[in-house]
Amino acid sequence: MPNYLGEDEILREYFVSTGRYKPLLESATRSEGFHSVSIRGERYCVSDLINIAQFTEFMNENHEYRHYS
Questions:
Q1: Domain count, the chain
Q2: Among 29, 30, 50, 59, which is most exposed with the fewest C-beta within 10 angstroms?
Q3: pLDDT by residue (tens digit) across 5-52?
Q4: HEC states along 7-36?
Q5: Range of the domain at 42
Q6: Nearest-5° Cα angle at 53, 56 to 35
């Protein structure tokens, strides 16, 4: 059992081998509205923080997101 990869990794390898899944890109370009930051040598893109009122407005305008989350 110490070499068992786990269900998620087994499924990922299966879908990659059958062509039904393509692994995520190792690098990507920064999207508009995001800032590139470095944390412990890793690069991340983050957006500005929003307040509760802005979040509430977003949720009210995006019913599909509200239903999903």
A1: 1
A2: 29
A3: 889 889 988 988 998 887 776 666 777 889 888 998 888 889 999 999
A4: HHHHHHHHHHHCCCCCCCCCCCCCCCCEEE
A5: 7-68
A6: 95
